[in-house]
Amino acid sequence: MAIISEVEEESSSSRPRMLPFRAVLDSSNPLGFLEKVFDFLGEQSDFLKKPSAEHEIAVAVRAAKEKLKKKAEKEIVKPVEKKAEKETVKPVERKVEKESVKPVEKESVKPTVATSSAEPMEVEKPKEEEKKESGPIVPNQGNGTDLENYSWVQNLQEVTVNIPVPTGTKARSVVCEIKKNRLKVGLKGQNPIIDGDLYRSVKPDDCYWNIEDQKMISILLTKHDQMEWWKCCVKGEPEIDTQKVEPETSKLGDLDPETRQTVEKMMFDQRQKQMGLPTSDELQKQEILKKFMSEHPEMDFSNAKFN
Any idea where the CS domain is (predicted)? Predict the structure, then answer.
């Protein structure tokens, strides 16, 4: 549904100016709506620049949760009251309808219900389904995807593929070929379960597979580039939205200093992009440019164009 709100902003004449904000809330992707809200705040106000911005947002979220809890507690009593009213009133209403009202209601009510409810539902549903199918998928809890025949999860270093097989399957009946850019897995005498090009190259010597509880083939793929999130495991499969990937920040302390610095840089750049702010590399270039301009005041940069 469409949500429209207005934000007040002081103009040069000290009178409040109303800025329109328009966004469409998709119930299956509420985070996308919140990203647009933060983008709007970043463009039209200095709220996100405040040191206490994250704390204030967290307080607002807690307050909203408390309101929902209170509403839920009130609604627990309401259904019981409604059922009691229906049980007492229905017998009286039915007797009256049989005598005088029924013939009139059948002729007048049916056309209004059919014309008012059927038309908008048939038009809106296909559009919503097309949007979901065309856009990237929200990753699962393991930053991967759950597909029909298998599922996969990932961190920056590895991808783990889990393929369910009939209980009692043994290793000698499994066919698994792991190449630098391709993966083929299946059972002997049957069509492959996975047979396609990998999203990115792997290190075959550091990859392996095994059977878990004789009902699951688990494959570990070591990424060649260990600083990139995969959008899919095998090319052609649905892709995830890597901007919604959630790194395991609690395990950053286990990384070596160089890798930890790179991961923290990626997380910072991801937050900056979501808020429409410059990344670390862009900030560094800006600082170098400012330093160069300050060291050469005799040069005129007024007509210069920078990429």
Answer: 145-234
